[in-house]
Design brief:
This protein has 170 residues and is an alpha/beta fold. The chain is built from 3 helices and 7 strands; from the N terminus they run E-H-H-E-E-E-E-H-E-E. A hairpin with a 2-residue loop joins strand 6 (145-150) and strand 7 (153-163).
Length: 170
């Protein structure tokens, strides 16, 4: 048995203007604010002497590795990111950035926005375009019926509304 782990498949390279701005802000914060703070704390802990049993030093080094890993990821991700800042020409169909309202077999309505994989936020009803439901909805119109594999099993939904908002709102 080896330690090799197959790399995670890269998510779609799309992001809303708001999502790209958040990623840039996170990168800027990590690089300009958080990393220097942790570096100073590690230097202070190292000055205390024996590093092998110095919890602050060990934890600080671990934090630096995590910050550096996230910074590398963000830089690489931002380099290949395609920012979608305007709605599609055909606003009657479901595409990236759409707010979609669907109704299930029991009549329960759910509304969510289809966003990039870096922008997933259940509290804001943001769903990845790579999710099974979002993939099933792509290109559909109001009153279209779709079947998708969701956590509760295979379900059928009817699209009841498709709308788009401008880049700076939502």
């Amino acid at each position: 048995m080896t330690r090799y782990r197959r790399p995670e498949p890269a998510g779609s390279k799309y992001a809303t203007a708001e999502g790209a701005r958040r990623l840039r802000e996170e990168l800027d914060y990590l690089w300009r604010v958080h990393r220097p703070q942790v570096t100073r704390a590690v230097a202070e802990a190292a000055a205390q002497g024996d590093r092998s049993e110095n919890a602050e030093y060990i934890y600080g080094k671990k934090q630096l590795r995590e910050i550096d890993r996230r910074v590398r990821y963000l830089r690489k991700r931002l380099d290949g990111l395609v920012v979608v800042s305007r709605p599609p020409d055909d606003r009657s169909r479901v595409f990236f950035g759409a707010w979609v309202r669907v109704e299930d077999e029991e009549g329960h309505e759910t509304e969510f926005r289809i966003v990039g994989p870096d922008e997933i936020d259940p509290a804001r009803q943001h769903v990845s375009m790579d999710s099974p439901l979002a993939r099933a909805l792509m290109g559909r119109r109001r009153d279209d019926e779709v079947t998708a594999e969701v956590p509760g099993g295979r379900r059928t939904f009817v699209v009841t509304e498709v709308r788009y908002e401008e880049a700076d709102s939502g």
